[in-house]
Task: structure prediction
Amino acid sequence: MSMFNTDRRSLLKGGAAMLAAAATMSSDQLLGYAKAWAQTSQWKPEPGAKINLLRWKRFVEAEDVAFMKIVDAFQKANNVTINVSNESYDDIQPKASVAANTGQGLDMVWGLYSLPFLFPSKCVDVTDVADYLGKKCGGWADSGKAYGMLNGKWIGIPVAATGGLVNYRVAAMEKAGHKEFPKDLAGFADLVKGMNKNGTPAGMALGHASGDANGWLHWALWAHGGKLIDKDNKVVVNSPETAKSLEYVKGLYDNFVPGTASWNDSSNNKAFLAGQLHLTVNGISIYVTAKKENPQIAEDMNHAHLPAGLDGKTRELHLGFPILIFSFSKYPQTCKAFTAFMLEPDQFNPWIEAAQGYLSHFLLDYDKNPVWTADPKTTPYRSVAQTASTPAGEAQMSENAAAAIADFVVVDMYANYCTGREDVKTAMASAERAAKRIFR
Amino acid sequence: MSTVQTSMPAQAAAAGEPSFWSRLSGNRNWAAFWFMLPTAAFLILFLAYPLGLGVWMSFTDERIGRAGAFVGIENYQWLWDDSIFWLSVFNTLFYTLIASAIKFAIGLYLALLLNRHMPFKAIIRSIVLIPFIVPTVLSAIAFWWIYDSQFSIISWSLIKLGLIHSNINFLGDTEWARASVIFANVWRGVPFVAITLLAGLQTVSPSLYEAATLDGATSWQRFRFITYPLLTPIIAVVMTFSVLFTFTDFQLIWALTRGGPVNATHLMATLSYQRGIISGRLGEGAAIATAMIPFLVAAIAISWFGMQRRKWQQGSNND
Result:
């Protein structure tokens, strides 16, 4: 009977969620479903569990509303409490790190990139959850496995990724002489050059922007056959391939809108929405905002994957969102149950729909979600998991690769060369040394 | 400690042969020790322990979430030939030196102005304090917009005035970025220097100026031989603090540039945070932070030894 008890607070919360309901299932239906789910679930939440969950602060409001609905249904069905707190991209990792180091404060973190790999020994083994979801939802994409597994064990569940794809203005592209978005490196360079000539420049971050700068610069490195480390974690960044990619990026940078060396993660969003920037690499958030606030820009823009590399393959670094459970949590079963619950089709489908393309899935069945076809402009974001690679590239994702991303080793190499601070050889040598310091 | 001596015989007489305990309880030094203990414990717990821990950490390979092993000076060896580290050392010294000098010059000038009799003196003095009152992060974000590469109000105004043709790359160009962060730091730091020096100026007796004027001293002479010598002790204190604050600045840089472009504005404090917390290498971050200590000790030592000298204390020529 206690399952049906609701206190005033949760009623209020439920009411708010109902008002805000944007997706298909109503709160009541969701609650009923959640109760049924809880009965059959293999993870039985600890009675009276109280979980502190930290997540990144939303970029798309409807996504957050849908997420809170899931949280709410889970709370009521299982009679547990989940406190959700939000932090901006930049602050989430320091907070999670402090919790990991002190062993208190948080039970779960839904963070960025490779967060679980920064402190793998503090993460609960969630192989059972991953196997359950994989079986139920069409299996994990390879990139999903790479983002979640360490030595055959899942240390985090890659909930979704936000794809760093090309956002471009259609008219500006056509004026630069490209009917279609270019599919190879030469075509892409030509497009950027042409757009600059027409006074409708492109621009991508070369500053310390953890999402944007790391994303496209790793693509540039990989596209030319360069890599920071090989399969065995040996530093191999100082190579002719890397040199080629440096020249390529310099060619792009010289045609960018001025100031990209100082850009952070929000700079290109602002400039694009103000009509001063006509091509950049970003999540879908620019388009989502434009639809609401600036329909002319939304009308004239589209998305595409970055062009294939010299070997014909496209490999991109997208911003993964893994969720992890701390080993010092007193309620691991509740955390596991919640993780599984939120990735179930009945929750996940309305959620990614609400996110409007901002969240791309790693579980293959979700390719069928109508969000990817209803608006053709979101379709490129469907295949984010197929092109995604972890920061480690060919190697196993690790603490060290996570540290290299956080220390901007690759970004600094390109920025050093493009801004003329160092020549090709010195830029590569500095990056090599910085990488060796990390992979020692 | 003659007082101790006098109090003891009285007790001894009462108790016959004085026990160790009664001798101890009558000892004022022993009592003083207990009175000082809370403060000492506080200082050890919140100042000495974290400092010691930080220094110890710099000799380990500790990472976030797991304890480290002792690795000797390995972290320092890596830093020794790390060009980014040396760049950050240069940046920190450059930033501290230039910003402190400008802050001193403007602060002193402002203090002298504010020390004059003028209408609305109190209000003007409080207005000067505003930059100091605004939380650093807020002012940093305001400056971030002012320096934005696309939406800078400065670039916009200059373009509208027809003085320049394209946006100034405030935070994207190495030289501009350094100048911009120094300007923001000066804007923030001037009020502290100005108001403190003003307080010092107010303690200078007006009769000295009157006497000097009667002797026909020019205003420069009055400043050079009265104001400046009497202000020296305050200047020493203010500049020590100003240098310390600037040297350890973090928020402003972190909010404005994250140490970019290409690490041109990375200070030791921001690099230590990036390596220690963001990329999880606590040992290495601690090593960078520890490397700041000699510089800070030197800054304190200079003013400390300076203050010991009577010339500094009293402004006369007798050392």
